[in-house]
Design a protein that fits this description.
single chain; alpha/beta; about 35% helix
């Protein structure tokens, strides 16, 4: 409300009466058993402080100027200051009112109540107190002592740490280390004010200086103030370091003295506690910290002892592995039964047990769960029924040689279940397309009649029977596809197709041949695999095909599915070579996108989307009728059991084209998975494909027991291999770099054997013996123990690189491989050349980066955590650094880096095709200089065995795709024995 005094001109108003905040350090008198009355509370003096320093209290109240200029109490109570109008500056009065409210509302219980019109500052438990006190100076409110033998001030800067020192005999000492305004302060002469500040004083000083300081005081700092050090006896020191020390390190800043080990890592371990009770599985997820601190998974991370960032990192890896293994919901705890329990035990647990910082602990006898992974084999027959107008359906489903009771299967399908567990513990997923289609057909058949004795069809419903017949052949599209393939068989030669109008690229001869082959397949509504080597222009050929179909008047859009990192390449290449094609890049899922995929597709010629978005929004992408679908880097769909493979199979399109330089990475199943999408009727059943081709081709003649049987095995294998090539050849086009050698510069490859240092060798051999004993005992049941085996193999591979990757205590042993690398890179940079450095272990790339930093050699760094991927790549291309450190997963494909002439592979990879892809970042069309490739191999380690295994896998691909010699491809128990052998 406006006062009449406010109407007086400012220059004529009376001056406000000055205010100060009086502060006093008080102490309750010592206890005297001879006196019955309450002990008085009196101001401290130098003399009283020198005798005792307990029962202290810090109080405050308003003060005004007395007649002689001193600050006095007078009538300046809290109420008077708050209610007086015109006597005090309103801003100062408001400041005092807010301080009083803080002191009254946000306080803890003190040892005794303040007397008179004072408030106890030492009991205010609010961080708001300190900015409020700091604002007093700006308002002209001084902080003054109320007693002549005291002085008071507000500190400018204060730090507080828990000090941990070693003392004689192995004991430890814990104390508080304080610095106020840069000066060490005895913690025994300080008291906490809540957990956000303190007051300190000095003894044997007249007047007594009292300092108020704002500083965060996490536990146990408040309890260490006002006391001497806390000693931990030598007999308890080990227990203290193991249990209390980690919690101190997480709670409060530490000052660690000589002779005390550094604080342990505060990162938690995610413990998965599993209890088996018959076929029932109960699990609980818990974060376990060093020192015994435990908290439930998924609870709010507001505990100061928790590392929210570490939990997020570990949790992301854990949840990714869980979701990749199953569709079970993730919960902090749950009890699972039947098929859910089987999925958890056979899929989820093996997937998470191999993760770093995740520990699985089980109790009880594990049930004999077993997953049936094979494709369902359906046999459907029509049998005469007692009712002459109907035919009974005979349905037999077999998975992995196990016949599934139809009644159990039918009930599960009709109830919409996602999986079935049989009585003997075997289980299987119902998500297979053939089983889902069977459910749809059974529902349709059931709608025609109420079944009394089992499924049946009317004699007149021949179209529905035809659909059952197609399903029994393992592929809905098989019948139509075979008819289209017969039409293609009548074509005697591939007609040459010119570059489409407006296409701005000068196609090389082999690229024109590729366009003609693609156009012929598409004209017959057939797909295929374009398997040219990396760098030969697969993207260019497919863009030419899209422009060609557009020129023929087909206005339907194309869909390109590619890894996220490759999306910009498709957009940019289309704009460069086929500017008339309208391209839309769909990077967001439906929940973050305003338009339906059908709406986007209606306005463009090409839709480009990442595999993850197509998998998530499979229903939306199945809605348009695409002119064709391109799967770039098609190795992403090599597993037919994945959701993305099923999502691609469900697309409505004339043809699917797979673009990959590696149609066979690990075995012939990879080739079948691609052909199941591109040529769905060629090999309808994976089970039959394995029986007809895989077993014969992937078996070495030397596996036979006698020379005669070995010769027979070899002849049969060659005959089978020729038959496979003959069937695949119309649908697979592959040109290696040898075909276009004149268009590419020379590539020289060299293996460099790097001996381990003596200490490194000793550590490696010790761990090798331990892991060999463990792994060799698991090989009789490799399918169930595969995760444990591969964890041991990965451990040895990391140990061959640098012991510090496995145990930080061995970091001082260094890495001979990094020594060789640095020596070469310095030479490369000095000569003005540029190099790519690849490893599949990002932690090893980090060590390489540290070595480059120490040597003053500039570099770019790309791995899965790189946020601005495009900027990093462009920076290297622009010449910002001579070295580019790249992880396998982040940079193994989708990059063109012809600026580099040297490629260093720091570790051999299981998949030789991935190595070739890495090398092809530099050795591809557009490179004008010779490319030098160096493989660094740790001598006498598992890396030499991995290299040998690589060659066997590469030979399989050559045999089927490039007509070379074939060898076994699967990593079986004998392979693992060879990896761990002497």
């Amino acid at each position: 409300m406006t006062s009449w005094r406010d109407l007086v001109p400012a220059g004529e108003r009376p001056a406000f009466e000055a205010l100060a905040l009086g502060i006093e350090l008080r102490q309750r008198e010592a206890y005297d058993p001879s006196r019955w009355e309450a002990r008085a509370v009196v101001p401290v003096t130098p003399r009283s402080l020198s005798k005792r320093r307990d029962d202290l209290q810090l109080v405050a109240r308003p003060l005004v100027r007395g007649a002689r200029g001193a600050w006095i109490r007078a009538d300046a109570t809290w109420d008077v200051v708050r209610r007086s109008t015109g006597r005090f500056d309103p801003a100062q009065a408001r400041w005092f009112a807010e301080l009083h409210a803080l002191a009254q509302a946000l306080r803890t219980a003190g040892p005794f109540a303040p007397s008179g019109d004072t408030v106890a500052l030492d009991t205010v438990d609010s961080p708001l107190l300190w900015p409020h006190l700091a604002a007093a100076d700006g308002l002209g409110i001084p902080l003054v002592a109320m007693h002549a033998q005291q002085r008071v001030r507000l500190a400018r800067e204060t730090t507080a740490r828990v000090a941990l020192d070693a003392v004689a005999g192995g004991a430890l000492r814990v104390s508080a280390a304080l610095e106020i305004d840069g000066e060490p302060t005895d913690a025994a002469h300080a008291r906490a004010i809540g957990d956000s500040g303190l007051f300190a004083f000095a003894i044997d000083v007249d007047p007594v200086p009292v300092v108020l300081a704002a500083v965060v005081l996490p536990d146990p700092l408040p309890s260490l103030l006002g006391k001497g050090p806390v000693d931990v006896p030598a007999s308890d020191a080990a227990e203290f370091v193991a249990e209390v020390y980690p919690r101190l390190a997480r709670r409060a800043p530490l000052s660690v003295g000589a002779g005390v080990p550094p604080p342990p890592a505060a990162r938690p371990t995610l413990e998965v506690d599993v209890a088996y009770d018959g076929d029932v599985v109960t699990f609980r997820l818990t974060w376990a910290y060093p020192g015994g601190h435990r908290v439930a998974y998924g609870s709010d991370a507001d505990d100061v002892e928790r590392d929210a960032r570490a939990e997020a990192q570990i949790g992301e890896r854990f949840e990714t592995a869980w979701m990749a293994a199953s569709d079970l919901p993730i919960a902090a705890s749950a009890t699972l039964r039947d098929a859910d329990a089987a999925v958890f035990a056979t899929r989820v647990l093996p997937a998470v047990d191999v993760l770093d910082e995740v520990r699985v602990r089980t109790t009880g006898a594990e049930p004999t769960f077993r997953e049936l992974r094979g494709d369902p084999s359906l046999r459907i027959t029509l049998v005469e029924s007692l009712d002459r107008d109907w035919l009974d359906l005979g349905i037999t489903v077999t998975i992995d040689g196990r016949m599934i009771p139809f009644g159990v299967l039918f009930r599960a399908l009709s109830r919409g279940q996602t999986r079935i567990k049989l009585s003997d513990g075997a289980w299987f997923s119902l998500s297979h397309p053939s089983l889902q289609r069977l459910r749809e057909l059974l529902d349709e058949a059931a709608a025609l009649d109420e079944w009394a004795t089992g499924p049946r069809l009317p004699r007149t419903h021949l179209t529905l029977w035809a659909e059952f017949e197609d399903l029994a052949d393992q592929s809905e599209a098989a019948g139509e596809w075979r008819a289209l393939a017969r039409a293609l068989r009548d074509v005697t030669e591939v007609p040459e197709i010119p570059a489409p109008p407006g296409f701005r690229a000068d196609l090389r001869p082999y690229q024109r041949e590729g366009l003609s082959w693609l156009a012929l397949l598409h004209a017959h509504r057939l797909g295929g695999i374009l398997a040219d080597d990396m760098g030969l222009g697969k993207t260019l050929q497919l863009l030419a095909l899209m422009a060609h179909t557009r020129a023929l008047g087909d206005e339907r859009p194309w869909l390109v599915v590619a890894p996220t990192s490759v999306l910009p390449t498709w957009r940019d290449e289309a704009a460069r070579f086929a500017p008339e094609l309208r391209v839309a890049v769909v990077e967001a899922t439906a929940v973050r996108r305003s338009q339906h995929v059908s709406e986007i597709a209606a306005g463009v010629d090409v839709v480009v989307a990442p595999y993850g978005v197509v998998r998530t929004d499979a229903d939306e992408f199945a809605s348009p009728h695409w002119a064709g679908v391109v799967l770039d880097e098609a190795q992403f769909v090599k597993n037919p059991a994945t959701r993305i493979h099923r999502a691609i199979a469900a697309l409505h399109t004339d043809a699917v084209f797979a673009a990959t330089g590696t149609p066979i990475e690990n075995g012939l199943d990879d080739l079948w998975a691609l052909l199941a999408l591109t040529a769905p009727g060629l090999f309808p059943s994976i089970r039959q494909f394995r029986e007809d081709y895989t077993r014969a081709i992937e078996r070495l003649p030397s596996d036979a027991p006698t020379a005669l049987s070995a010769a027979a095995t070899g002849a049969h294998r060659e005959k089978t291999l020729a038959r496979l090539r003959r069937r695949v050849r119309p649908f697979l086009l592959r040109r290696t770099k040898d075909v276009v050698a004149s268009d590419l510069p020379l590539k020289q490859e060299q293996e460099i054997a790097v001996p381990l240092g003596p200490a490194h060798r000793a550590v490696y051999d010790r761990v090798l013996q331990r892991e060999r004993q463990k792994v060799l005992g698991l090989l009789d049941d490799l399918d169930r123990q595969r995760f444990i085996v591969f964890r041991s193999l990965t451990l040895l591979r990391m140990l061959a690189l640098a012991p510090g990757l496995v145990d930080e205590r061995d970091a001082h042993l260094g890495s001979a491989k990094l020594d060789v690398l640095l020596e070469r890179l310095v030479e490369v940079a000095a000569e003005g050349h540029r190099a790519l450095v690849f490893s599949q272990f990002t932690s090893f790339l980090d060590l390489a980066a540290e070595r480059l930093d120490a040597a003053g050699l500039a570099y770019a760094h790309l791995d899965g955590s790189t946020a601005r991927r495009g900027d990093v790549i462009d920076g290297f291309r622009d010449g910002d650094a001579p070295v580019f450190l790249i992880s396998l997963k982040a940079g193994g494909f989708g990059l063109t880096l012809t600026e580099a002439e040297y490629v260093f592979l720091l570790d051999p990879w299981w998949n030789p095709a991935a190595e070739s892809q890495a090398i092809d970042r530099a050795h591809r069309i557009g490179q004008t200089k010779s490319v030098f490739v160096y493989r660094l191999i740790a001598a006498g380690t598992i890396e030499e065995k991995v290299l040998a295994l690589q060659r066997r896998k590469a030979a399989l691909s050559d045999a089927v795709i490039d007509d070379g010699e074939a060898f076994a491809a699967a990593l079986d128990a004998d392979d693992i024995r060879g990896l761990l052998g002497p």
